[in-house]
Amino acid sequence: MTIEQRARNFLSVLRHCQVLGMTVEQADKDGLVIQLPYSDLIVGNPVTGVVHGGAITTLMDTCCGISTVCYLDDFEVCPTLDLRIDYMHPAEPGKPIFGFAECYRVTPTVIFTRGVAYQHSREEPIAHVVGNFIRMGKAPLGAAQEQILPGAAE
Predict the structure, then answer these.
(1) Which pLDDT band holds residue 75 (cuts at 50, 70, 90)?
(2) Which helix (H) or strand (E) holds 60?
(3) Distance between CA 11 and CA 6 in Å, rounded?
(4) For 26-35, what is the mean pLDDT?
(5) Residue 15 resides in a domain
(6) How many domains does the chain have?
(7) Exposed/middle/buried for residue 15 (C-beta within 10 Å: 0-12, 13-18, 19+)
(8) Could you confirm whether the keyword Hydrolase appears in this record (predicted)?
(9) b or e along 58-86 (b: 16 or more beta carbons within 10 Å of the residue's beta carbon)?
(10) Apex CA 144: angle with CA 32 and CA 148, to 5°?
């Protein structure tokens, strides 16, 4: 299974990501890109149509968390330990938002990630993110999860 397939499978089991319509655009050893389409569900100010910061936080936490599959040989349970987001400017209404994340250090206990939320290019970020994820080891998965994340229970 490719890194991109693993990332897509991981995203597909997260119900809030399904509801928000998030999709994996790219996943490889260089990192992960997830798209969050613009919708009424993520609008924070109905007058201006500006996206709520919580939607961007959700995108970036998800992106950083799933980026771990780009670096780990096997699926592991890695919940968020710490997440910091610095917002640079509001997202432009009516346009999708992309999240990019990469792991820049992997230790036996913690994975360190960083990335940006953007619309036009990574060089014009909406927000910067740094996230740390605790490594809890391989998860004992049931039959349904094993179909979604093959090899995760080995």
Answers:
(1) confident
(2) helix 53-66
(3) 9
(4) 96
(5) yes
(6) 1
(7) exposed
(8) yes
(9) bbbbbbbbbbbbbbbeebbebeeeebebe
(10) 20
For the stretch 16-39, what's the b/e string if a residue is b when 16 or more beta carbons lie within 10 angstroms of its beta carbon? ebeebebebebbeeebbbbbbebe
Domain assignment of residue 140, yes or no = yes
The residue written with tokens 């997202």 in the block is 91
* Three-state SS at 96: coil
Residue 104 DSSP one-character state: E
Domain that holds residue 54: 3-148
Rounded Cα distance between 115 and 104, Å, is 10
pLDDT per residue as tens digits for the range 100-127 = 999 999 999 999 999 999 999 999 999 9
Residue 80 belongs to some domain of the structure? yes
In a domain? residue 153: no
Per-residue pLDDT of 86-96, as tens digits, reads 999 999 999 99
Three-state DSSP at 16 gives: helix
The predicted pLDDT at position 153 comes to: 46
Q: In this structure, how many other beta carbons lie within 10 angstroms of the beta carbon of residue 152?
A: 20
Q: Domain of 91: which CATH number?
A: 3.10.129.10
- Candidates 32, 99, 106, 112; CA nearest to 74 is 106
